[in-house]
Each structure stands twice: as structure tokens, then as C-alpha cells.
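Crash report, auto-generated. Payload:
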Amino acid sequence: MIIQIQKNATEQEVKKISASVQSMGYSFNNIKTQFARYLICIGKKEIDLREIGFLSGVADVFKVSDAYKLTSTKWKVGKTAVDIGGGIRIGNGEFQIMAGPCSIESEEQIVSTIEHLKANGIKIMRGGVYKPRSSPYSFRGLGMDGLKLWYKLASESNIKIITEVMQVSQIEEMHDYVDIFQVGARNSQNFNLLDELGKVDKPILLKRGMSGTIEELLQSAEYVFSNGNEKIILCERGIRTYETSYRNTMDINAITILKDKSHLPVVADPSHGIGVRKYVDKIALASIMAGADGVIMEVHECPQKAFSDGQQTLDYGQSKDLIDKMGKARELVK
Amino acid sequence: MIIQIQKNATEQEVKKISASVQSMGYSFNNIKTQFARYLICIGKKEIDLREIGFLSGVADVFKVSDAYKLTSTKWKVGKTAVDIGGGIRIGNGEFQIMAGPCSIESEEQIVSTIEHLKANGIKIMRGGVYKPRSSPYSFRGLGMDGLKLWYKLASESNIKIITEVMQVSQIEEMHDYVDIFQVGARNSQNFNLLDELGKVDKPILLKRGMSGTIEELLQSAEYVFSNGNEKIILCERGIRTYETSYRNTMDINAITILKDKSHLPVVADPSHGIGVRKYVDKIALASIMAGADGVIMEVHECPQKAFSDGQQTLDYGQSKDLIDKMGKARELVK
Amino acid sequence: MIIQIQKNATEQEVKKISASVQSMGYSFNNIKTQFARYLICIGKKEIDLREIGFLSGVADVFKVSDAYKLTSTKWKVGKTAVDIGGGIRIGNGEFQIMAGPCSIESEEQIVSTIEHLKANGIKIMRGGVYKPRSSPYSFRGLGMDGLKLWYKLASESNIKIITEVMQVSQIEEMHDYVDIFQVGARNSQNFNLLDELGKVDKPILLKRGMSGTIEELLQSAEYVFSNGNEKIILCERGIRTYETSYRNTMDINAITILKDKSHLPVVADPSHGIGVRKYVDKIALASIMAGADGVIMEVHECPQKAFSDGQQTLDYGQSKDLIDKMGKARELVK
Amino acid sequence: MIIQIQKNATEQEVKKISASVQSMGYSFNNIKTQFARYLICIGKKEIDLREIGFLSGVADVFKVSDAYKLTSTKWKVGKTAVDIGGGIRIGNGEFQIMAGPCSIESEEQIVSTIEHLKANGIKIMRGGVYKPRSSPYSFRGLGMDGLKLWYKLASESNIKIITEVMQVSQIEEMHDYVDIFQVGARNSQNFNLLDELGKVDKPILLKRGMSGTIEELLQSAEYVFSNGNEKIILCERGIRTYETSYRNTMDINAITILKDKSHLPVVADPSHGIGVRKYVDKIALASIMAGADGVIMEVHECPQKAFSDGQQTLDYGQSKDLIDKMGKARELVK
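Recovered output after restart:
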């Protein structure tokens, strides 16, 4: 059960509501977000919702049987648009493309990418400065120096940036140089990281785990939400299966289902999904048909020279073509 | 290596070509299809293709390193359109929808479905008369009586029919009452069945196995092709993964890859793929973006009363809506 | 619900029982096996079993809610031993090893393998004469000539043989030259084949599908059983997963669960399971701990020269070592 | 390439070795562990190892082409025994059982579990004080207070303890109250956590990810090793597949392969693996046959009352039985 508290409710009223809940044999979690205050009540007894609804200070009350609560459409029927700043929004009908290299490599690269984005109407640039790598002997990114330079150049051009945060201690140092914090597939159930990102006032893009279920992704989002941050973007990036003729099985089905089960915006990552340059465009377009509110994709001035192997990375020409096609596909599903 | 023999080559010439191939340490398979004659040559030595190309009687020669040969784009670069009869073709730019119930249930149902198809410009009706069922105690279909009635009614209305054949002994009895033979996921590697369907002069729709790889599907198609039947349609119908929030993981990626690796047409089956009625439309549209040449879908006059549980089955209204949307999506990818 | 009919029941009595079942709103399947006669009754209403139990001609009656009925331990609590002939039995405490080459290749090989088996107390020889191959261009086995020779030599040495049957039409021609019919992973849901094998009076070894569930395997066994053949041996041979450092994920868990859910004997196939010679012994021993009633394994006089690649095949020395170890492991779990 | 530096090598010598490596076009990582000093050299050119081997200060040099280096048997052929303190070792022929509840719940429980362990000769107690939970609304463990009490009681009884660490900030506060740090499946690729645990002088038990590959597990171990901590124990705990008749597919194959590819000890977790109480014993015994150096299992004084659902948890009687059986199984594989 979710109880939304009225904006102007007194502490006295909240205490009384809490006491009522407890007297019914329920435990509760007291949750404050940027936008509202909730009690998430966990228990098994049947309750007459009206008994709660009539209490002073209650704005709304709903029964949500899913394991995820505040992220569920059973709680919030309308779609959420996440505000990224500067009038840029994603979700609830607003579509965003996020493009850029796998890793931020140099100032020249940043400048050239920003130019490419501006020329094509793209408002958000992606790129890694801390890279999770399977092997400890691989390049792990430029770190904070790279991030500061990137943020400076991007904000001068009114481009928002999204980059991956890998651990709690990085949140604070990265905070002022990031527009969207990305949580990677390997950290999809790093609950301490999710807890802390719930206390931040910036949007979080949360990737599905390498073999995470749809329900687990929504529960991970619930960690962020229940810690106070409602600005969450979900991301499908392919799952592990037995098939080896592509990199991951991009699960287009998940996009459709996430859009149905949750009010949060959903972004597709076809680059890490199918992972083969020449197929990225078709999978991006398919994702839009399935309901995606955005696409995040790898673009590089010279994919063959990218730090990462770049097999999934588009060059500027391919990127431009795909952006055009995505525009037309969006017309169809509006 | 594939050697295509000239249409008017003499037996003498073919023998000479074969002898040359053997003298190079290669074994060969002599293959005659409806359209052409080939030698598929298997061996490991490096060969100068020109030595073969110059022989009298050789129309063309190609090196194909894939495990599948005649179904590969390395052999045939242009796309294949499969002729279903009555001027209806699928592939190489021609798109077909196949719609109908899971199982054929009654004359009334056949009549009503045909009406629905005609009203919406659909030319192929699907339906099962022999049903593979996990449990031996389940309904297994109306059999030949149902098929004969169905074929009669359909052909009177210029509607083509596609239905599943489950074993070799059924091919002959079904042959005159079928326009497309369907091979189900469970028979995707029933090699004896594939061998025999290779000797039939009707199109074969071959479904990917429940956890079949893309390469295995193409090798299964190679069985049909190498036995003489070039009229093959591939079908993606979802694979088995750990995710349980839908029925199968419809592998949209496979559509894109099959279209790239093979010249054969590819059909999407979103009904058995995602398996949830309210999501079928989005997955059908996504499949078109990924490159599908057709969609096969379940439609029933009253899905709740279908023999199979019908959870993935559209009613006529939903079907009409989706057909309209698919038309628009096709415009986009042409 | 399963009703076992008394051996000496009259047709009159059976009719009366059937009528009672129908009057309760149940449909039924009339099943005769080598050993008994049953009515499998399918319906949803709650029934007082005593009403049936008191009818004349009823030997026993049980409620079985599983999708599989006669193969379930809910029906038959004691374990089944399958009689292979010549006093050789498998299951209910009796353990058998089945060893031999992937494909039968020559008379010399047969003779040499039989010698190896006899020297090590093994009573059942495995080998393929019809081989399912992914590619139509691969060797498909020696066929009936090889089988006849093999059967002659084996029966002269009191060795039983197990070999794969791939299609209905082969059953009759193979019948007199086979002691156990094997159904391969690719045919695990070839229901027509299962139906026909249910009418045969020889044991059937039924392999789990390449990505078959445990429940599907038991339902496939139910096809054989409900057609009249109770002599069924189940076989775990590895499933498809994302892991690539071995051939298949040998699912040792399945052995334990099959032994719990079904009364039928369960055999492990570590050769096709893990698929790497040097690991076969450990997986064979693990399977015995998990409850396997037998092990089927590939042995070849010279694995490097086997028709199949032979990477999972033991040589005679490795085979002898493993047979000794399996003997000791069996002592532990008795 | 791995270069082990002599214990008494001078800095001068190390510099010279590094310079030689660089001059060959290789990059290198300078690694100091508790036991030795290494240069891990990454490059693609063919090198004559003798050129390095003859340099002063080099103890040993090996080419290791795997993505994991120091954890590979290609580097260290003999098996590693990890010292847990108090003369307790695991690996290289020494076998350990780790038993206890899922979560530490109370003082009474700790006392009762320790008694059970001592009575059965078990030297290591498992239990969680920080629990990773899919839902933010679930119980997350007793935290540091619980840990301190537990450690006090355990060390008074000469029982070592193993418990999960979930984030970098916990390492320091937990350090003095832990004998083995456990890294859970969800953190198997939390590289920052692995980096920091590499700087700790306590053994690390590293669980395979929920759908982690065997290679990824070894690479994660490489993170710990290359940061300085050689005391690593690997753990197989079941992977995600499509099968639903048990909790996870306990991958017994992985135990055999890890033991072959790495010198590190491998522990089996049948409780979280198959996840069903009545099957835990068979899977534990199978794991020993596959080569496991230890078993970690859940035991609870009253499994039905455990905080976690306890479906995989043994009671004391079942635990005692299994410990006896494991003793006998160990005799067999010695």
C-alpha cells in the first residue's frame, strides 16, 4: 500500500497516519522525494483503504501488490517526464537521443562530437570517464580531469552530459560535472550505490543487469526512488543468452513491458545491445516502435581508432542517417 | 564451394566437373532444385576458383565458408521472393501478413476468418489441424477432415493457407490441401522431415527452434534447399531465456541478422514470441523495422473461447488496427 | 486423476467406471500398457476419490495434479526397474553403464569395443547408425547394414545395444536389431515418434531436449507411457546456456529432481554434457552422487580418429579408470 | 607475460627489467602481493622469454595468453592453499565446510550454531549482517552490532567467520571482525570493491555472478590478486537459465573447470544453487566429486522461522547427516 501525504500535512497528522497503519499490523517506510512524501506500507492483512483515505493529511492511497511500488503504473497511471535541465525532458511523449563515444579520449574528440550533435539537433552527449572493465589490466578511463574538461566544453554549448558512476565515493566528486548519472549493467544491483543516488538531485539512468529480470530492474529503480530521487530513466541494453551471432540479445520486448508496468521513461541502447555497427540502426528503429522514449548510442569520429574496440560504434555519417530515420519513426508512433 | 551448373549442361560435362572437384580432394553433393542444379563441394584445400570456372558446363562458382551454403548471401547476393501461387509473393520487397486462429475449430470460424482477412486485404490464412502439444492428453487438432474443408473454403475465396506438418507420413496426405507447409519450432531439427520437404514443390515456412541458434536455422533451411526445394521462408518466433515476464524472448535481432546472412525471406511471429495480446502490436511493428518480410499472427473471433488459451490472440478489431499500422510502418522501411 | 483397472476386470466394469467419470464432468483416456490398464481422467471439479475407489473393477485411484501423470511419483511411489532383457535391469537400485563410440564405424571397431566392455563388466554398448547432423553435408551413419552386423556381433557376446531412432519409419526396420531405442535431444518433442515408440515392446531411452525443461521431459515420457510402453529411461545430457567454456551445461540438478518427481530410471550422459574428455570422469561421478541409475559415455579405440570430432570421447584406458571409480562411487550412495 | 621478481631484487634491477619490457613494446603492471612481486606485461609481439629470464632480479617468467594471468594454472601449476588463520587452510587437498544461517538473527542463534558446528568438527561459520535484497523494503541485516557480537562469540570458540561485504566503506569497519570477506554474486563485477579487497590481508571468497562466465570470475579474482591479495577462494553458486523447477542451475561443470584453469581453491554453495532443502545434500556430494575444496551451506536451528524464507536451509539433523556423507565422499576423491 502506498499513502501519499498532503504537501501541507503537519507532523502530527503524519504520526497519526503512521500509527493507524501500524495498528493494522503493517510496517511502513517513510519516504521523502524531491516532489512528494509517501508512506510505503508492507503487510499481508486485507485492509479497507477508505479507513486510511479518510485520515487527515492523506493525499492519496493505493494498493500495489507488485514487489516494486512507487515505480509502478499501479501507483502512477500517467507517464513521468524526467527533467534534465535547460528545458530538456525525456518521457511522457518527449524523445531524446544521447550520443557520443564509449570513452572520452581527448579535447579534440569532445569538440568534434559536440559539433556533430549540434548539427543534428541532439542535446545529450554520452561518454565514459570511469570504465568498468572485465580485466584489471585494461584502460579504465580519463577520470575526473577528463570529466571536468568535458563538462566545461559541453555546458558552453548547451549540451547535457551523461556518464557512468561506479561507486559511492565518486558521487560527490562527480556531482557538479554531470547532468545524468548512469548506472551500468554490472552495478544494476549495487544497492549501496542505488541508495546514495537516491539522495542526489540529478537524473539517474539505470541499466538493466546483464541477466537482470524486468522486475529486478524496477526494484532497483525503487531503491533510488524510495531514497528520495524520482528522476529515474530505465535502460534496456541487451541480455545474456545462448546465441552467439551478436553481442547481446537486445530485449525489445522488455521496452514494451517496462513502458506498460512503469511510468518511468525507457531508453534503448542498441550499441551495447546487438553490438554490431551495421545492425544498430534497425535495432534502434525497432526500439522506437516498441515504445522507447530515447536511444543512447555510440558515435565516434573514427570508430576503428576508438579505445574500446568500437565494433558497435557508428561514424558521423551513419549517425546522421540514423537520426533522420528515428525522426520519421517517431512520427509514426506519436 | 558452390558450383552452379548451366541449365543446358550435358551429363558428360557434369561428370567432368565432378571429376575435377574430386581430383582436388573435395567431396561433393549433387543437388537439383526446382530452379537450378548445383554441386556443393566440401573440402579443406585452397583452390583456385578459376580452374573450376573455366570448365565447360559451369554457370557460376563461389567460395562459401559458412556451414550453410545455398541459403547464404555469400552465394546469392540478391534477395529471394518466394512464390506462393496466385501472384502472391513474399520477400525481395514484397510483404505478406498471415493471420488466423491457433487451431482450426469449425466451419463457422473458417468463414468468419476469411471474411476478416478479405476485408483487410490479407491473402494468407494460418491455422493448425495437427497441433504439437506438450501433454498427450491435450486436444491435437481436427486433422485431415478439418484441413480439406478449410482448403476448399479458402481457395474459393482466393485465400492461401499455411498449416503445420508434423511428420513425414503427413506430407503426402496434406500436400494437395496446403499452400505453405509450416515446420514448427519443435521440429526445427527433425532432419528427416526437412529432407522430405525438400522434395516437395510447395513453399516451406521454417520456424527457429525453441532455443535454436541462427546458424542452426540456416542449416535446417539448407536441408530443405539441398534436397531440391528453394522455396523457403524463415521464421523468428522467440527463444527461451531466463526472463519470465513474457512467454518467449522474441529475438528481433535475429530478424536483422537473418536478413543479412541469407537471401531468404524472414517472417516474424509476435503472437508466439512475446505471447501477450496487448503487446503483440508493438512487437509486430518492431519486427518490420528490423527487416521482416512478413508477420504471422493469431486472430480469433473470440480469443477468450479459443481452444488454445488464446492469451496471445488478437480479436478482429485489434487485428484491423495492427494491419493499418503495419502498412504505415512498411512505408517507412521501403 | 489416475484410475488403475484390475487385471481381471470385465469390459462391463470398465464401461461403468468410464461412465461414472464422465458423469462427474471429466474426460478420460483409456490406456493399456504391457503391465496394466489405466484411465487418465482430466477435469477440474473436486471429486471424492472414494466414490471411484468403491467401484467394481478399480484396482487403485490417485489424484495427480502434475501435467505428467503415469510417470509421476505421485502415482507410483516405488522406483521402476526397466528390464532390458537377459537379466539386465536399470533403476530401483540397479546401475548400468552404456559405453561405445559416437557412430558405429566398422566391424573391427565393434569387435574391439565389445572386448573392452566385456573386460570391464559392461553389459550395454552404445553407438549411432543414424546420426542427426546440423549440416546436410555431414556423414549420417552406416544405416541398417551397420546395425545388423553390430547386433549380430553384440548378441553373440551377450551385449545389449542402444542406438538412436530418428523417425517413425525406422522403428519397424530397426526393431529386431535393437535392445534399447534412443530418442535424441532434437527429437525430444517429436510427438509422433513418441506415440509410435509407445506401441513398441522395447525400452526407450529419452533424452532431454537441448533446452527442454524437466517438466517437458516428463511429459514426453508420458507420451510413450500413455501409448502403452512403460519401459522408459530418462536421460540428462546438458542444456544450452550462455556459458561457453564447455559444450553444454550438464544439469546435475535435473538428475536429482527427476529422481524425486518420477519413478523412472535416470541416466547421465557426461560425454555430450560437458563435452570435454578430461572432464568427463568428474561429471560422471558427480551424476552418480546426484542419483543417476546409469551413465552413457563415449569410448573409442582411438578418439582422435573418430568420425565425430571425438573431443568428448574416452580412450580405453580412461574408460577403464572411470568404470573403477564409478564402482566405488556407487558403493557410497547405495 | 608474467615476470616474478626475486625476493631480494634491488629497485635498480626492477627498473632495468621494466625498461627491457617496455623496449619490447609491452606495457606492464607492477604488482606486489603479500607473498611476492610481479610484473604483468601486456603486449602482442612475440618475445623470446629467455631474453627476460636471464635478466638479474628475475625469479621466473611465463607466457600466459588467458585474459586472467596470476590466477591461471598456466602461471602457477601447483594448487594454492588459502590460510584462514588458526591453522585452518582450504585448497591443495584441504577441505572445509562453512555452515550457518543466511542472516545472523540473535545471540541465542549464534550460540546454538557454534555448538552445532563444534559438535560436528566444522571450523568456519557463515552468516550475513549486511544483506543484499532485491527490494528496498526488505530486512537488510543486523549490521556492525551483530557482527561484533558474532565475532566475539565465534573467536572465543575458535570458530572462524565468513560474511558478506557490500561496499568499499564497509571494509574498514568490518575488517577486525571478519576472518573471510565474502563478495556476493551481485557484486562479482563491482571492480572498485575488488580493487580495495586486494589491499586487505584477509582471505576473500568471491562468488560467481548470477550469470557470470567462468572467465569473468577468474578476471574478477585477478582484480583482487593484482591489487596485492593472493588469498582468494572462488565460489560456484548457480547460474540463471530458463529452467524453473529449482532456484538456480548449480553449475557443477564450473567447479571442475575452475579447478583445472586456476590454482585457487573452489567452494560450492548448494544452498543458493539448487535452493531446495531436500536436494542440497545430493548437490553438495556431487560438487565434491567435481573437485570442490569446500562447501558453504545454510543451517538454521529452525529453518521455517528463518528471516529469509529458508527453503534451502538445512536443520541441524540434516546438516549432521550431510557432514557425515561429505566426509565419506572426500575419502573417495583424495
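Post-recovery validation: Chain D touches chain C at residues 211, 213-215, 239, 241-246, 249-254, 256-257, 260-261, 273-274, 278-279, 282-283, 285-291, 325, 328-329, 332-333 (CB under 8 Å).
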